[in-house]
Write a structure and sequence with these properties.
The chain has helices spanning 24-31, 43-47, 54-57, 81-92, 104-122, 141-167, 173-178, 209-232, 267-289, 295-322, 327-345, 366-381, 387-400, 402-423, 432-438, and strands at 7-13, 60-65, 70-75, 128-133, 185-190, 254-256. It has 15 helices and 6 strands. Strands 2-3-1-4-5-6 form a 6-stranded mixed sheet, with helices on both faces. The longest helix is centred in the C-terminal third of the chain and has 28 residues, at 295-322. The protein folds into 2 domains: 7-263 and 325-400, no CATH class; 403-438, no CATH class. α5 (104-122) runs antiparallel to α12 (366-381), α6 packs antiparallel against α13 and α9 packs antiparallel against α10. β5 (185-190), α8 and β6 form a beta-alpha-beta unit. By secondary structure, it is α/β, with parallel strands linked by helices. Helix content is 53%, strand content 8%. The protein starts with 6 loop residues before the first strand and ends with a helix. 30% of the residues are buried.
């Protein structure tokens, strides 16, 4: 095993359209602690910060698991229910320069571009990318999404290579010219497994072998469907270096969580507990206001109360899943750690068929990762400094806003005909009612 080297594991994807939903619990179950928090649960803490960090604005959070030599990255986006509700709520209270609220399409376009830029970052730094799906079906919309990411990555590759060269990091030439440590291995996780496939409890003793075989059969069926879809659409190819990502040939890459919707957080209990804590906080704040504290200390006291209540809410939400060391948590750890061990020991070789091309694979040290991660975050997430990069980012909009482009193109074709019909036998002067009739 490589000493002082780390494997980078990222979590992206979507959550269920239910309140208080976050996929952060998946990483928390891997590290066995409630580190990763949804933006909904951590909102007050973020709002009290004087400076806004770029990674937080793009919903990126990291954790270094020193024991297992893994760095986990969690991405929250417009596809996370809580985050989407926050974004829509915030934009509904913000007026633009024309004193009008942004339309849904404007908000969606802006957030989707941020999501694409974040994905470009993660696919340039990760060894393993876990894609979370809220259902037990493969979303074929990912095929078009992967094609967009691959097109943008190839266009930005020369600039990324130039950036990595300027850092003078102790990394190999293969990584340097590929612009990434490897072709990341993608794993798929699914939720909402049909309840008739597993027992009502996560107790391992209550799940018989027949139910386990049914779930395993469904996982293999999903793997076949995913592999055939990606191969036929040329998202993955025989040579992993030439693909956006790879999937393993002799290891499982699809996992179905044994948790059903009934295991989700009870919304009413959560709101009642939050109401109780808010009342307690108001009571303590009123009592403390009688003391002659200077404003700075009083603000610190209020901030501490807010954080304590936030942590209590977070613990209530996540402990229902994380503290339950049941069958799903054990199987999910086993599923992910098999790939992590492969990465730390011999690396990935996901070439298909007979090929003599050696796959690019390298593990960074923690120091190298931190420097490279900060540099790539500045490159992908902040405003571009060069005109060349601005042009490349401008092309992202053409890939994202397809609905508006389709509507505009249709209107351009019909507009001359509409104008000619309007102007036909039109008098020099006419009333408003005549105008409305022609329109």
């Amino acid at each position: 095993m490589n000493e002082n080297k780390v494997c980078i594991v990222s979590l992206i994807g979507k959550t269920q359209l239910l309140p208080n939903q976050s996929k952060a619990w998946k990483l928390n179950s891997l590290i066995n602690t409630n580190y990763f928090k949804s933006s909904f649960m951590n909102k007050n803490e973020l709002d009290t910060n004087e400076t806004s960090d770029t990674k937080q604005n793009f919903g990126i959070d990291t954790y270094h698991d020193t024991k297992n030599k893994v760095i986990y990255i969690h991405l929250e986006s417009i596809y996370d229910t809580n985050n989407a509700l926050e974004i829509l709520f915030e934009n509904s209270n913000i007026k633009s320069e024309s004193d009008q609220s942004k339309t849904f399409f404007e908000i969606w376009e802006n957030e989707h571009i941020k999501y694409l830029r974040s994905i470009l970052l993660l696919f340039s730094i990760s060894h393993i990318v876990i894609i979370s799906s809220p259902s037990c079906e493969f979303d074929i919309g990912y095929i078009r999404f992967f094609r967009i990411i691959e097109t943008l990555r190839n266009k930005m590759l020369p600039s990324v290579v130039e950036l990595i060269k300027s850092l003078n990091l102790p990394i190999g030439k293969d990584w340097l010219y590929a612009g990434r440590p490897c072709s990341p291995r993608v794993l798929f996780t699914f939720e909402n497994c049909p309840t008739d496939l597993f027992g009502n409890s996560n107790n391992e003793n209550e799940n018989n072998s027949k139910q386990a075989k049914m779930i395993e059969k469904l996982q293999h069926s999903l793997e076949d469907q995913i592999y055939n879809s990606l191969r036929k659409s040329y998202v993955i190819t025989n040579i992993s270096n030439n693909s956006l990502f790879s999937i393993p040939a002799n290891q499982e890459f699809a996992y179905i969580h044994r948790l059903s919707v009934q295991n989700s957080v009870d919304t009413n209990r959560f709101l009642l507990s939050n109401l109780f804590m808010e009342c307690s906080r108001a009571k303590e704040a009123t009592a403390s206001s009688t003391n002659f504290l200077n404003p700075h200390l009083r603000h610190q006291h209020h901030h501490q109360l807010s954080n304590n209540n936030n942590n209590n809410s977070q613990n209530y939400l996540s402990n229902q899943i994380i503290n339950n060391e049941g069958l799903d948590a054990k199987l999910f750890r086993k599923f992910v750690y098999e790939h992590v061990k492969t990465a730390l020991n011999e690396g990935f070789n996901d070439n298909i068929g007979r090929t003599n091309v050696q796959p690019v694979f390298e593990l960074p040290t923690v120091n190298s990762f931190e420097k490279l991660f900060d540099a790539l975050c500045d490159f992908f997430l902040n405003e571009p400094k060069s005109s060349k990069i601005r042009q490349q980012y401008a092309q992202i909009k053409s890939h994202v806003d397809t609905e508006s482009q389709f509507s505009e193109n249709r209107c351009k074709k019909v507009l001359p005909t509409a104008l000619s019909l309007y102007q036909e036998n039109l008098p020099g002067h006419y009333t408003k009612s005549q105008h409305q009739q022609r329109v």
